[in-house]
Automatic annotation (TrEMBL):
<feature type="transmembrane region" description="Helical">
    <location>
        <begin position="172"/>
        <end position="194"/>
    </location>
</feature>
<feature type="domain" description="EamA">
    <location>
        <begin position="176"/>
        <end position="310"/>
    </location>
</feature>
<dbReference type="GO" id="GO:0016020">
    <property type="term" value="C:membrane"/>
</dbReference>
<feature type="transmembrane region" description="Helical">
    <location>
        <begin position="293"/>
        <end position="310"/>
    </location>
</feature>
<dbReference type="InterPro" id="IPR037185">
    <property type="entry name" value="EmrE-like"/>
</dbReference>
<keyword id="KW-1133">Transmembrane helix</keyword>
<keyword id="KW-0472">Membrane</keyword>
<dbReference type="Pfam" id="PF00892">
    <property type="entry name" value="EamA"/>
</dbReference>
<feature type="transmembrane region" description="Helical">
    <location>
        <begin position="206"/>
        <end position="231"/>
    </location>
</feature>
<feature type="transmembrane region" description="Helical">
    <location>
        <begin position="33"/>
        <end position="55"/>
    </location>
</feature>
<feature type="transmembrane region" description="Helical">
    <location>
        <begin position="268"/>
        <end position="287"/>
    </location>
</feature>
<dbReference type="InterPro" id="IPR000620">
    <property type="entry name" value="EamA_dom"/>
</dbReference>
<keyword id="KW-0812">Transmembrane</keyword>
<feature type="transmembrane region" description="Helical">
    <location>
        <begin position="117"/>
        <end position="136"/>
    </location>
</feature>
<comment type="similarity">
    <text>Belongs to the EamA transporter family.</text>
</comment>
<feature type="compositionally biased region" description="Low complexity">
    <location>
        <begin position="1"/>
        <end position="18"/>
    </location>
</feature>
<feature type="transmembrane region" description="Helical">
    <location>
        <begin position="92"/>
        <end position="111"/>
    </location>
</feature>
Length: 315
């Protein structure tokens, strides 16, 4: 999966080559950043909604992807343009889109069970290492991220760790949970990087549909193997699952898939760190649960790290 750095390019490219990640024009970049803000707000709702939903964690992950796929299906399969975009996907693009779906399923399948094995603080802190994994994987695939990207990623992750805290309790159960959360962060990095690669040539709708379909199928298998209950919920639970699908999946992840082509995988992955303070802000507005004073400097550190990476990518 060769990956090149973000840079401004001309309007033409040699036949047989793939377009690199491009730095969009200022107006398009402002649009991407606005959509990124909406996406972060969407995924920030996932924490409070998951905590309030009376269903197994794996089942919640399955239903948010299955409902999203069902919601996209009429638009993709019945309208001429999306159907043509889907039909134009070549074998390589289809396989990469399915691989992204597998990585997203792995992210959910690894991280959510970790919450039951280790502390929430440790799980969240370790899963938010996604930007570090993204930068490492970019380096391994031939891209040389500027030093500012490394620095910005480290600063942003440090802010997230400071915000969430880390439980240093050592036990076999806690260590297993920590390992799962760390692997979940790495899986999220693979998902973002593959998405950036696919979005060079594929439309957001076609890629997202194949990705979510694969994720839903794999999570369904995981639910059946784990014996997670997939039904028998109350009407309130189904409404919360629907809200989670619309907010976190269709608005959150789908818009991330939309902007990753222009903003690049580094900016996109680091922006996900804003999910934790975003969830805290929403909890304050929705539930009256205000974060401690120490949360605000940590948020400032995350934003500083994101700004460093955006500046480096623009250069």
């Amino acid at each position: 999966m060769p990956v090149t750095g973000s840079r401004r390019t001309g309007g033409q490219r040699t036949a047989g080559t793939r377009a690199p990640f491009t730095v969009p024009e200022p107006a398009h970049r402002r649009t991407d950043i606005t959509l990124l803000g909406v996406a972060v707000a969407g995924v920030s709702l996932s924490g409070p909604l998951i905590a309030a939903t009376a269903a197994p964690a794996l089942a919640i992950a399955f239903w948010r992807n299955a409902m999203a796929t069902a919601g996209l299906a009429p638009y993709v399969l019945l309208r001429a343009r999306p159907r043509a975009e889907l039909a134009r996907l070549d074998r390589r693009t289809l396989l990469l889109s399915a691989a992204a779906g597998a990585a997203l399923a792995a992210h959910f399948g690894l991280w959510l069970p970790s919450l039951q094995l280790t502390s929430v603080a440790s799980s969240v802190a370790l899963v938010t290492t996604t930007p570090i994994w993204t930068t490492l994987l970019l380096r391994l695939t031939g891209h040389r991220p500027p030093r500012a990207v490394w620095a910005g990623s480290a600063v942003a992750v440090a802010g997230a760790v400071a915000l969430t805290g880390v439980d240093l309790t050592v036990s076999a159960r806690a260590l297993t949970g920590d390992a799962l959360a760390l692997a979940g962060g790495a899986a999220a990095a693979v998902y973002v990087l593959i998405g950036a690669e696919v979005r060079r040539t594929a439309s957001t709708t076609a890629y997202t549909f194949v990705c979510y379909t694969t994720t839903a199928v794999l999570l369904l298998i995981a639910c059946l193997v784990a014996g997670a209950s997939l039904g028998g919920y109350s009407g309130e639970t189904w409404l919360k699952l629907l809200a989670l699908t619309v907010a976190a999946q269709l608005l959150g992840h789908s818009l991330l898939n939309r902007v990753v082509r222009g903003l690049g995988p580094s900016v996109t992955s680091i922006s996900l760190l804003l999910e934790t303070p975003g969830a805290a802000l929403l909890a304050a507005l929705w539930l009256g649960q205000f974060p401690p004073a120490a949360a605000y400097p940590a948020l400032a550190v995350i934003v500083l790290g994101l700004a460093l990476v955006i500046r480096a990518e623009r250069s």
